[in-house]
Amino acid sequence: PENWTLYGHHMTIVFNDGSEAKQLVANGLDAILGFTQQLRVDTIGISDEAIAFGVSGYKTQNEHAHITIATAPGVKPVKSNEIVNWLPIDGFYVTGTINKFEKK
Q: Is this structure's pTM higher than 0.85?
């Protein structure tokens, strides 16, 4: 939609909030950093605040593994975690590299 912010550049596997549980998961991912992974996109989620592509066959900390595509003006991409309407689409594949990003 017009004036929405476009994303589409990542899928969060785990958001390490510093808790012991999240830290353990994040540390476990260190062994696969730099690996390339193919992901199947087969749903689209739409709300008043965000649009995302749903990814199947990959486990993340989110209820629905997804790639945020766009958010409404002033809305942060984390709002895509709250999408409840997921519709099937003709599937396609995307490829990405597993990376770690840290707040500075």
A: yes
